[in-house]
Amino acid sequence: MPSSTPQKIPVTVLTGYLGAGKTTLLNRILSENHGKKYAVIVNEFGEIGIDNDLIIGADEEVFEMNNGCICCTVRGDLVRILDGLMKRKGKFDAIIVETTGLADPAPVAQTFFVDEDVQKNARLDAVVTVADAKWLSDRLKDAPEAKNQIAFADVIVLNKTDLVSKAELTEVEARIRGINPYAKLHRTERCKVKLSDVLERGAFDLDRILDIEPDFLEAGQDHDQHDHEHHDHGHHHGHDGHGHGHGGLKHYHDEEMQSLALRTDKPLDPTKFMPWLQNLVASEGQKILRSKGILAFSDDDDRYVFQGVHMMLEGDHQRKWKEGEPRESRLVFIGRELPEQIIRDGFESCITS
Amino acid sequence: MSDFEPGDQASIASVTDRVRPVAIGAAVTAIHFLGDRAAFVGAEESVALVDGEGDISRVTVHGGGILCTASDGARIAMGGDDGKLAELNSKGEVAVLATDPKRRWIDNVALHPDGAVAWSAGKTAFVRSGRSEDKTFDMPSTVGGLAFAPKGLRVAVAHYNGVTLWFPNMAAHPEFLEWAGSHLGVVFSPDNKFLVTTMHEPALHGWRLADNRHMRMSGYPGRVKSMSWSAGGKSLATSGADAVIVWPFASKDGPMGKEPAMLAPLQARVTVVACHPKQDILAAGYSDGTILMVRLEDGAEILVRRNGTAEVAALAWNAKGTLLAFAAEDGEAGLLPL
Fold this sequence. Notes:
A: alpha/beta; five-stranded antiparallel sheet; B: mainly beta; six-stranded antiparallel sheet
């Protein structure tokens, strides 16, 4: 793994709306016998019922960087706590950062892009979002934070599935997929998920950046969906989403938050693509929550991978294209009111003719 | 890249053969002198006291990480992630000064020459002076740094968007010096005329205390983590660039409208600076392990330690200025008698 630095400590960011089950998952991570030691940064001390000198209370202090970029916010408390934790390097294997239910995940993620010291010692492993199967659909309508948390996620733990019917489950999964088709989704009761499915995922690792293949498979496993199709249409009439069937699959298009996938098998011109991408995130970065891509440039035998949070990007040559591997460029943007046509046209103009 | 040494440094006077190596064997984050002994403060749990002969005795001070230190030459105060504020005196005796009831991290500590001590946990700053009860003050955000003014009982508390000047023994309202951003470290000039903070972004910010005029000191490629006043307080040496950046403070305007001096440039980042207590000389440590002594007047350099090792983590002079102690991040350390 050439571009990952093994001594960097992996950090998992745990988000989820109030009551979704973050604390349940944390307690499981801390009490299960997995032979690993986690340092945990929590926002509400005392909720964790386990005595561990590596549980640290944080204050979620977000501040703007003085660089003229209004969405360039970082978690100052996290910078300080990670710096302090590094003094005890070797005493723990990984770090988990729990955010409050109402938090926007962007400042946490951006802290790992902006801060030199944080970058030196730690790497963002994945954003894991715990969602409540019973209430998420409602929260997506009335709580912008909940929508952000879904849009940001690399892994979604859809919890409390025992409290909903199969139809309701299909419905909420379709809503999640309408916002973020790329996250790994796990259905759970009481957050019973294999810890290897949420921890040390390497989702932010440029080496394993993606499959940029929508993860629709799980939603497609339900076969009793047609029965409820009609009901769905009626029920959501006049709301901010609409559902329609595709041979057993259900798709929702969230009118506010979308994902956009771009793909070409023709090489990209790096002298056009890089300035275009940088300009795009500079001008539309407030709308773009996450971006990721694998790129094939003209006259370049290396795969180039990048990822971004709002206006911040990081990218690197990853490895040689393999013999016989299709040299295809794939990009994904997840964001709010994305200017789809402008992005598509801009991308087209970077393809070598 | 450890092979540029002959061409680059052959012409520099060297005292590397006079250094007495000290094997601390664990990460060091700060050094203070207690009398004739150098105290190498570890990242965790203990302090190694090293005498002039190089004999090491270890003292356990915390049950975890040591987050902050301050010294007045007679004692070292240290805050830990075990929620304790501890003190080590020159006899090697440890006392616990305070324990946070919620076991919060003790993030910052400062000592006043008259014996007062200030510390912080989260947003709360504490001061203990003389016989009176501890005073506490809640800041609007987490405390980034603490410093006592050289005169009177006044504490500068750095936090988000500025510095609060707190007078713990007076009912008067604290003064607030505003500047947007996160302020992490704070120092008064020895003449009490200026206040300077290190910021989260790669810059310093300063205020002239007579009229609160702002001084912006920016242009660093990296965050400034080490500041040191020269003997007499005429200039402030700082880390954060690939040269020692020295700001002039001799005139009443301080560095306003002036360029800093850039001394001892290398192909490595300056990580720590320590000015000599009596003469216009400073010691600078770099990210590639190099340590130089530099004359402030003309930038003349003397090599103390070669490059090619771990980043220099700490430097300190004894009070007389006859001994320089240093330590790298990996625990390799040394003493240089002058």
